[in-house]
Specification:
Elements lengths: L2 H13 L2 H8 L3 H15 L4 E3 L4 E3 L1 H29 L3 E7 L2 H17 L3 E7 L5 H7 L4 E5 L7 E10 L1 E6 L20 E4 L4 H7 L12 E5 L2 H9 L5 E4 L2 H4 L5 E5 L6 E8 L5 H16 L1
Parallel strand pairs: 3-4, 3-5, 8-9
Antiparallel strand pairs: 1-2, 5-12, 6-12, 7-10, 7-11
Helix pairs in contact: 1-2, 1-3, 1-4, 2-3, 5-10
Length: 295
């Protein structure tokens, strides 16, 4: 397959609309249709089911997309790195975060990157809880440091940059606040405040509906931001899982952070969209990874 054929196929596989694909590629709709038909003739089978109302990938098309995407992405990244290396790392990079302790790491990374590539500027943006994927997809940020798990087909999970033990944020007057540690079974003892707009995979990992022993976890209110979580916990509306580092960054008289004794640690990783690549992204990723490993 020629490069323009690969790009046309992958764009149509994502858009599932000939008009939007043509607009994205800057060619006519007829050109896209002709290109796809040529690829199908060469392969020997239909890649898309077409009707007057919809376009959908066939099983053969899904297989080809799965096989092609990582190679195409690798080629794009190689070209971007070579191009930017040839002219030097210049321009702006935006990186998002939600947890304060990750913000500190990113600011250190900016300082180190600036010493290596002074013509490259990095903007660090604090994001609202639950806005990570939207910020990446809309291009508001190029990279984002967020809690795992993230399992989205258009999001690339990069290296882990922070690992921390879990804690339970509880109201200061709650019986759990007097304990040295809590266990996952204790989640059945108070309403669990949950985040809005998160995937089920994420919710299952951090905000379960049942304890490991099968006891139901009471449902508490939904919070849209970390400040909402703190307000709800401090007001006695429930409890919420977090990281032990929160005790240092978000200390409040009405909240106690009690470490879990039996929960796995929280991992934070660099995320980026499959559409985002380039030497700046890779250079910043290397710097953050170096600092995380050293610290």
């Amino acid at each position: 397959m020629e490069r323009h054929e690969i790009e046309a196929f992958l764009a149509l596989a994502e858009e599932l609309h000939f008009g939007r694909t043509a607009e994205r590629l800057g060619v006519s709709q007829g050109r896209v249709s002709q290109t796809i038909k040529g690829v199908e003739r060469r392969i020997g089978g239909p890649l898309f089911d077409r009707t007057s109302r919809r376009v959908a990938l066939t099983p053969l098309g899904r297989q080809l997309r799965t096989d092609l995407e990582p190679h195409h992405r690798g080629i794009q990244e190689a070209i971007s790195r070579a191009t930017e290396t040839a002219r030097g790392l210049t321009g702006r990079l935006s990186v998002g975060y939600t947890a304060a302790w990750n913000g500190s790491l990113l600011l250190d990374a900016v300082d180190l990157l600036r010493t290596r590539h002074p013509e490259c500027t990095v903007e660090i943006l604090e994001d609202s809880y639950g806005a990570t994927l939207r910020s990446l997809r809309t291009g508001r940020v190029d990279l984002h440091v967020a809690e795992l798990p993230v399992e989205e087909p258009d999001i690339i999970v990069g290296p882990t940059v922070c690992t921390a033990a879990r804690a339970l944020a509880v109201p200061a007057d709650h019986p759990l606040a007097t304990r040295d540690t809590v266990g996952l079974e204790d989640l059945a003892l108070a309403p669990l405040i949950r985040p809005a707009g998160m995937s089920q995979v994420f919710l299952d990992a951090h905000f379960p509906q049942h304890t490991p022993g099968g006891r139901p976890v009471p449902r508490g209110p939904v919070a849209a931001s970390w400040q909402d979580f703190l307000t709800l916990v401090g007001s006695g509306k429930g409890v919420t899982p977090t990281c032990v580092l929160a005790a240092a960054f978000y200390a409040r008289q009405d909240i106690v952070y009690v470490p879990f004794r039996d929960a796995p640690p929280i991992r934070y990783a660099l995320l980026r969209s499959t559409r985002t690549a380039g030497a700046k992204v890779h250079a910043f990723t290397r710097v953050v990874t170096e600092l995380a490993a050293a610290g």
